[in-house]
Amino acid sequence: MVDSFLLIVRQGEDRKTHRFDQDAVVIGRSRECDIVLGDRLVSRRHCRLERRDGGEFLLIDEGASNPVKLRGSKVEQEEIHYGDVFVAGGTEIQLMAVEAERPSLDETALADGAQNAKDLEAFIRVAKALNEESDLSQLLTAIVDAAIELTNAERGFLLLGESGESTVEVARNFAQEEVHTPEFKISRTIAQRVRDSGVPELTTNAQEDDRFSSLASVTDLRLRSVLCIPLRIRGIVDGVLYVDNRLQNQVFKEREKALLMSLADHAGVAVHNARTMRELRAKQTELQSALDRVAQLNAALRGQVQEQLAEIADMRERLGGAGGGGGFKYDYAQIVGDSRRMRDVFGLLDKFIDAEDPVLILGESGTGKELIARAIHRLGPRNKGPFVSENCAALPESLLESELFGYAKGAFTGADKARDGLFVAASGGVLFLDEVGEMHVDLQKKLLRVLQEGEVRPLGSQKVVKVDVRLITATNRNLEELAREGEFREDLFYRLAVLPVTLPPLRERREDIPFLVDRFLTELSKEEKSPKPRISSDALEALTLYRWPGNVRELQNEVRRASILADGVIMRSHLSERVRDPVPVEDGDSGLVPAERGTTLPDLIRELEIREITRAMRQSEGNKSRTAEMLGVSRFALQRKLEKYAIETDDQKQAAPAPPADSEEAS
Question: Where do runs of H (alpha helix) occur along 566-663?
C-alpha cells in the first residue's frame, strides 16, 4: 500500500490541506494541475513534486517565469523532506507526513494519545488566554510564555519589525523572568534567515548542525536546541518566535515545531487584533481631543460672534450714515466720520461751501485735508469746473512758480512754447495748494497779488491773464506762529485763513475708527474683486486704542497690510507689533521699568484704564455715550471694560482701589 502524504497550502490567511497517494503532483494555475493556485505570480505549470522508489521526494521546476523557491533559493531540481516549505509565487506549500500534520485548535495528530490530549488541553488554554488579552504589551509577553510552556524551552524571544530592522520585543525564561540584553542572547542570523524566508528552522544540536555550526553567534552563545518560527500577521511575515535551550540537545522535535507553528498562527491573529484595538483607542483619544478642541473653538467663536453682533448693533445705532445725513445741509457720505469733532467740521463746511472766499485747511499729515478740499469742490457751485491740486513742498521754488503762473515761450532755457499755469487751468473751478506753509517768501508775495487782483502774469510775459479761481490751501504747520516769526507773510496768512477748517487727528476721534476700517475693507473688496474681509473684535479694539501718529493714512495702510496677511478674518496677530502692543506713556515717567517700580505692565495698564474711565465717568456724570466719546472708544468697548474692572456706574465707585488722584496720563 502506497503511503499518503500531505501538502499544506497557505495563501495569506487561508490554509488548505491536500492529501495525495500518487507519486507525482503538478502545481500551477492551469485547471489540469493537481493543485490549482489562483496566484498571478504562478505559471500555468509551475512545478511538480515527485516521490521516488526510496520514499524521498524531489521538487522540480516546470520552467516557470518565477521559479519555485526552497529554503529561500531558486530550485531547478532539489530533494525535499517532510516539514520543508517551498514557495510558488506568493503561496507557501509545506510537505507533511500524514501522521505529522500540525495540531490545530480542534485536533492533533501526535502518535501518543495521552500526550495528544495533554498538548490539546494546554493549547486550548493558551489560545483562550491569547484571545482574552487586548493589551499589546501583555499579549506579546503571554505569547512568549506560552511558547516556552508548550515546547519546554529554557528561553523564549519574540522579534517584530521589518526585515533587517527587527527588534526583540519580549525576552523571557522558563521562570517567567526578563532576559536582560536579549539582543546579545540569540542567534540573529537564524532569526533573520527565518524572517526573510518565512520557513521554520529546527536544530536539535546547533553545535554539530552543518547549517549553523559555522555561525559565530552559535559558537559564542554555545547554542544547542533552537527552534525559530515565522510569525505571520495578515499573511505577511512580521517577525519570528524564537525558543532555545543552551544545555540540552534534542529538546525540540517535529512535535514542538508543529505546536509552535500553530501557536504562531493564533498569535498572529491576536497581535493583529491587539494592534487594531490599540489604534482604535488612540484614534478614539485623538478624536475626543479634537472634539474637545472643536467645542472650545466653537465656544470662543460664539463669543466672538456675539461680541461682533453687539458691536455691529452699536455701530448701526450710532451710524446714521457716518458723515452722510445727521441734519447737515450737504451729504458728506464720502467722508467717514460721526464723532463730535468731525460733526463740528461738517457744520463749518455747511457754511463755507457756498462762499467764494479762500479756505485754509489745518491738520496733521494724513488727516484727509485733500478729501475735504474735494468735498468743497464737489458740493459747491463750482462743481462743473475743474479741480486742480498741487503739493507746494514737492517742487523747488522756480519750478513751482512756473507751474502756478505759467510761462511764455522763451522765458527760460527749454521753454520752447508757452504754457498756462495751474491758476489758468483751474479757472472756473477750485485750485487746491497743499503744504502751502512750505512756499518760499518771494513766491508768497506773488500769490498774494493774484488773490488781490484776480489775475496772473506768466513768467517772461508782459501780459496778464484774468483768472476766476476759488483757492483752497492746506498745511500741517502753524501758519499763525510762522507769520509771527517772519517765516510766512502775515498779510497772505489773513487772506488764506478767511475760512479756516481744522481737522482733528485720528487719536481725538477714535469712535470713527470702526467706520474707517469698514470703509477701507469695502474698498479693498471692490479693488481685489473678492469677498470683504472681516475683523475680530480684539483686532478692532487694538486699532481703536492705538494713537495713530500718521492718522487716517497710517490706518489705511495698516488695514491693507493686515488684510493681505489674514485669511478672510483679520485677527489681532495680523496687526503690526506697534499697533497690537503699544507702549503706554505716562507723565513724569521716572525712567524705571515696571519691575523696578514694584509692579507689572498688566497692572500698570489696568490702573491706567480704571483711572481714566473713572475720571471720564465723573466728568460726564455717568453718561456712557459721552464717556466713550471722551475716551475715544466705542460705547461697546467701554461697556466691556466697565464689566471687566467691575466699575460701578451708579455711584461712580469701583470694585478695585482707586489710583492717586494727582496721577495724570498724557493720552
Answer: 577-580, 601-619, 624-631, 635-644
**463 CB contacts (<8 Å, ≥6 apart)?**
457
Give the residue among 426, 387, 385 at the shortest CA–CA distance from 404: 426
Q: What is the pLDDT of residue 661?
A: 39
Per-residue pLDDT reduced to its tens digit, 61-105: 998 888 999 887 889 999 998 888 899 988 899 998 875 444 443
Distance CA 274, CA 277 (A): 5
Full strand arrangement of the beta sheet holding 201-203: 167-173, 155-160, 236-245, 225-233, 201-203
The secondary structure element, H or E, covering residue 541 is helix 537-545
**At residue 321, does pLDDT exceed 50?**
no
CB 209 within 8 A of CB 203: yes
Quick one: cell of 468? 476766476
What is the 8-class DSSP label of residue 204?
S
Residues in the chain: 667
DSSP summary character for residue 100: G
Give pLDDT tens digits for 494-520.
Answer: 999 999 999 999 988 988 999 999 999
Dmax (CA) of the chain: 143
Q: Is the pLDDT of residue 2 over 80?
A: no
Q: Are the CB atoms for 362 and 503 separated by under 8 Å?
A: yes
d(CA 143, CA 266): 9
Strands 406-407 and 419-420: antiparallel
